[in-house]
Design a protein that fits this description.
This protein has about 425 residues and is α/β, with parallel strands linked by helices. Helix content is about 30%, strand content about 10%. The protein contains eleven helices and eleven strands. The strands form two sheets. Strands 7-6-8-1-9-10-5-11 form an eight-stranded mixed β-sheet, sandwiched between helices. A three-stranded antiparallel β-sheet has the order 2-4-3, with no helix packed on it. Helix 7 packs antiparallel against helix 8 and helix 9 runs parallel beside helix 10. The relative contact order is 0.21.
C-alpha cells in the first residue's frame, strides 16, 4: 500500500507539472494501438506528408467583424458604433467584403490565393449554447448526444496503419479538443512542456513506468499486479513519456536559417500563448516526424461587451491571431503547400449590436481554410444579405454552408479520404467544389 500511495502522489505531481498531458480515451489508448513491448513505429504518416492544423476560436467569434460586409446596404444600420468602411482601413476583398484592419497580416495569403474565407458558415442546429455547439461541431454531429468520438479522431482511426507515426496527431494545450478525442491515441501537450520543471516531472514519472524497453528494475510499477490492466497502464505510460521526450527534443532545438529568403524560423512570431503553440506545431511539422493532424484553441471570443470596431477587445485579439497565423505560414515555407489550416468557431454573433457595444449569441459565422491546394483569393459561401427578411429568426446571419461540408471537402481533397456514409451521422455531405 505504501508503494501505491507513493506512485499516486508522484503521478499527480507529474500531471500537475506538465499540465495534464493526456492521450485520447485516457490511459489505455496506446495499449490498444501497440502491443506491450512493441517498438515505437517509424515516423511515417498514413497519407504521406499532408497535414491539417485545426484552430478553434472558442467563445463564438463574430464573423461579421472579421470578414466585414461593408458593401451590404443594411450593414451600418445594424451596427451604428461597430460598423466600418474603407476609410477606416478595411482591406477590400471585393465589392461586398473586406478584411478587418487587424487581419492585415493575412492579406498577402489572400492575394496569393492561399486564403479562402467562407461566409455564412457553421452548424444548422439552432442552439446558442457554447457547450453544445462546440461539442456538436467537434463531433461533427449536431444534436446527436450519442456520438462521443471527434471527427478528426474518426479519420485517424479509419486510416491508421501498422506504420502510423507516433506523432501522427497532437494537440498543443492542456486538454484534448473534442475533435481529437476517441479511440485513436492523441497526445495533448501544454505549452509549458519544454520547461525544466516539466523535465523533472517526467524524470519522476519515468521511475514508475521505465524507459526504452519497459519497467526499470526494482521500480515502483514492478510491485504492481502483472495483470492485463497493469500492463496496459505501464505501456501507455511508457509510450506517453517517450513521445513527450521526443516532442521536447524537437521543439527545444534552436532555430535554424533555411535557404532562400525565408526568415530564421520563429523570428517573426509575436509574443503570446497562441504564438508559442503555433511555433511548436511548425517545428514538429518541419521535423519530418509524420505529424498529420494538429489541434490548438484560441479562447476568449465571447464579446458581449466592448467588442469594438476598428478598436476594441476583438480587434486586439484579432491582431495577435493574424500576426501569429501569418508568422506560422511564413515559418512553414514550402510546407504550407502540404498543410491545410482550418479556422472555425461554434457559432456567430447577432447582426445587430447590443447596448454594450458588443454582440450576443447568434447563428452563422465564418470559417477560414488556408494553404494546401485550396482555391483562395475569393469569398466562398452563399451570401444572402443582411436585410431582416434574410436573417435567421430575423436576427442572425443564416448558415448557408454546413461546416460538415467543409470538413468533407478538406478530407477528400487534401487527404484523398472520402468519408463513409456513417462518418457524419444523419447527414450526407456535399463537396464544396469551389473550394478546390
Amino acid at each position: 500500500m505504501k508503494n501505491k500511495n507513493k506512485f499516486e502522489t508522484s503521478r499527480r505531481r507529474f500531471l500537475q507539472g506538465v499540465g495534464a498531458a493526456t492521450v485520447a480515451s485516457q490511459v489505455p489508448a496506446f495499449a490498444r494501438t501497440f502491443e506491450v513491448g512493441q517498438a515505437v513505429p517509424a515516423a511515417i504518416g498514413a497519407n504521406g506528408e499532408k497535414s491539417i492544423v485545426c484552430i478553434f476560436l472558442r467563445g463564438a467569434a463574430d464573423g461579421l467583424n472579421m470578414i466585414v460586409p461593408y458593401g451590404d446596404s443594411s450593414y451600418e444600420g445594424h451596427r451604428p458604433t461597430l460598423a466600418m468602411d474603407l476609410d477606416d482601413g478595411l482591406i477590400r476583398l471585393d465589392s461586398t467584403f473586406a478584411l478587418h484592419p487587424a487581419l492585415a497580416p493575412l492579406e498577402s495569403l489572400y492575394k496569393s490565393k492561399r486564403f479562402a474565407p467562407i461566409v455564412c458558415a457553421g452548424s444548422t442546429h439552432g442552439t446558442r449554447s457554447h457547450f453544445d455547439a462546440q461539442d456538436w461541431m467537434e463531433f461533427a454531429a449536431p444534436g446527436n448526444r450519442t456520438m462521443r468520438e471527434g471527427w478528426l479522431n474518426r479519420y485517424l482511426m479509419a486510416t491508421k496503419t501498422e506504420s502510423s507515426a507516433t506523432f501522427r496527431a497532437v494537440a498543443i494545450q492542456e486538454l484534448l479538443p473534442r475533435s481529437l478525442r476517441g479511440t485513436f491515441p492523441v497526445l495533448a501537450v501544454p505549452g509549458n512542456a519544454t520547461k525544466k520543471k516539466s523535465n523533472k516531472n517526467l524524470d519522476i514519472f519515468e521511475r514508475f513506468y521505465g524507459d526504452s524497453g519497459g519497467m526499470l528494475e526494482g521500480g515502483e510499477m514492478a510491485n504492481m499486479q502483472p495483470d492485463n490492466d497493469a500492463a496496459g497502464v505501464v505501456e501507455s505510460g511508457r509510450m506517453t513519456i517517450e513521445t513527450l521526450r521526443r516532442f521536447q527534443e524537437i521543439v527545444g532545438k534552436a532555430p535554424t536559417k533555411r535557404s532562400g529568403d525565408v526568415t530564421v524560423s520563429g523570428s517573426a512570431y509575436p509574443s503570446s500563448r497562441f504564438s508559442t503553440g503555433l511555433q511548436q506545431i511548425a517545428k514538429v511539422l518541419k521535423a519530418g516526424e509524420g505529424l498529420e493532424v494538429a489541434g490548438i484553441d484560441y479562447n476568449g471570443w465571447d464579446d458581449h461587451t466592448g467588442e469594438g470596431g476598428v478598436e476594441g477587445k476583438m480587434a486586439t485579439r484579432m491582431t495577435d491571431f493574424a500576426q501569429c497565423l501569418a508568422a506560422f505560414c511564413s515559418d512553414l515555407g514550402p510546407e504550407l503547400d502540404n498543410t491545410t489550416i482550418m479556422v472555425m468557431t461554434e457559432f456567430g454573433r447577432t447582426v445587430r449590436e447590443n447596448g454594450n457595444t458588443g454582440t450576443d449569441h447568434g447563428h452563422g459565422s465564418a470559417m477560414f481554410v488556408i494553404g494546401g491546394d485550396v482555391k483562395g483569393g475569393k469569398i466562398h459561401g452563399d451570401w444572402t444579405g443582411l436585410a431582416k427578411k434574410d436573417l435567421y429568426q430575423g436576427r442572425d446571419v443564416p448558415v448557408t454552408t454546413d461546416f460538415r461540408n467543409v470538413y468533407y471537402s478538406v478530407l477528400k481533397n487534401h487527404f484523398g479520404y472520402k468519408t463513409p456514409q456513417e462518418f457524419f451521422p444523419d447527414f450526407r455531405p456535399q463537396e464544396m467544389r469551389s473550394l478546390y
